[in-house]
Amino acid sequence: MPPRKRSETEITKLPEPHFSEAQAREFAEGVRLFNEGRYWHAHEAFEQAWKVMTNAPEDDAEIVLRGLVQLAAGLHCLTERRERCAVQNFQKATGKLQLGAPRFLNLNINPVLDFLEDFKQHGNLDARLVLSFV
After folding, report:
1. CB-based contacts of 32: which residues, under 8 Å, 6+ apart?
2. How far is it, in rounded angstroms, from Cα 64 to Cα 128?
3. Which tens digits make up the pLDDT trace of 69-121?
4. Closest Cα partner for 16 from 62, 47, 51, 54?
5. Which domains does the chain have, with CATH numbers?
6. How many CB atoms neighbour CB 54 within 10 A?
7. Torsion angle of the four alpha carbons 82, 83, 88, 91, in this order, in degrees rounded to the nearest 10
8. DSSP classification of residue 57
9. Measured between alpha carbons, how far is 103 from 60 in angstroms, rounded to an integer?
10. Which helix (H) or strand (E) holds 108?
């Protein structure tokens, strides 16, 4: 895995990434797998799209991809009834996903943030989330 890129506090502007064809395929595959409830596999696909991004400011969107990786990992933990693991991943994902615009990477981010807030408030272990393209 590549070294961690910028932190949430270092990013002031988050441009949309310019994915290669391979990245776009991996990202779309990640969304498909995520929506099928195959969270571990979605995590792996999102990670493949993220790994090739650089430390350059134009690739700062990698932080949102890391958030999606952590979101998928947290949901995978939920499927295994590992609440502490889910909470930890969701906490890490929240700040990263909040950096994106309400529509980022062609995804509707607000329902994701609503899900994370609802989980934080109520701890619903049976929650279901679908990523939707806009």
Report:
1. 42
2. 20
3. 999 999 999 888 888 999 999 999 999 999 988 888 889 999 999 999 998 88
4. 62
5. 20-122 (1.10.3450.10)
6. 11
7. 140
8. G
9. 16
10. strand 107-108
